[in-house]
């Protein structure tokens, strides 16, 4: 794996922060177990044989182990039908030892993620993707929030990035990333501009961003010249490619080396938002456990 060039801006080290979050969560789980309670449990549902999904799932279950969360794997072949999958979710909804249910997306094309989310118990929705969870986020009510957006907010907080009154630009409007990030930034009193594939003069809008969050899913799409000097740049994108010698290269949605020369803070890829996403999944699972068992 080739890491990106060293920057002159301050690198927001998501890997280190995620490790520290995991330490705190591990202590929390140890205390829970010491009081005689069971461990928090996360059920992970994986359908099909997509290599990237399998890798993400492995990473998530290993992270569970590190903090003492019990993980339950439910693996299905690619040709699984909707009824089987929905029955699995309904059983997990009823399980006393499962606090969080994660359905790894994307699902094979014949299956509907929407139908899965419609039956998933919002109290166990550790990805924050059900309509109920999204509504609660939109209304500013307590609920489980999507992991990547919360991870971004924790990174900003850790690096003491002032959000209030700042102009935050979010590129991307997916339910998973763009929309919830925009909402969370707005709730922290940023003035938010949401951009998407039909946005005009995107470079000029970005040049006005104090905080720029990029979740476009387009490799090295944002150029260094688009970054306002002193801005904070959060790169959510993840792209796996091969280098000239066949080595594995991971890069983001931002031209990192150029952007880092201008930005005040910037997340690297890998090692920025990605590890925080997994850490927030663990955090959500423990929160779900606490709420379900009446601790919180
Ligand atoms: P997505 O569902 O494909 O959404 C991409 C968004 O970007 C869409 O809203 C799209 O606009 C917008 N977009 C596409 N091309 C654009 C352009 N030329 N100019 C402006 N906006 C453009 O992707 P996603 O699920 O949000 O994920 C985004 C990226 O984050 C991907 O690289 C994904 O792998 C990565 N990701 C990383 C993590 C992590 O933990 N680091 C977690 C989740 C996702 P329209 O709505 O108009 O189509």
Strand-helix topology:
Layout: E1 10-11, H1 14-34, E2 41-47, H2 51-67, E3 70-76, H3 82-94, E4 100-103, H4 113-119, H5 131-139, H6 147-158, E5 167-171, H7 178-187, E6 191-195, H8 202-207, E7 211-214, E8 232-235, E9 239-242, E10 248-251, H9 256-262, E11 265-266, H10 273-292
Parallel strand pairs: 1-11, 2-3, 2-4, 5-6, 5-7, 7-8, 8-11
Antiparallel strand pairs: 9-10
The protein binds NADP nicotinamide-adenine-dinucleotide phosphate (NAP).
Considering the chains and any ligands shown, give keywords for the structure.
296 residues, single chain, Rossmann fold, 16% strand, six-stranded parallel sheet, 11 strands, disordered N terminus, alpha/beta, three-stranded parallel sheet, binds NADP nicotinamide-adenine-dinucleotide phosphate
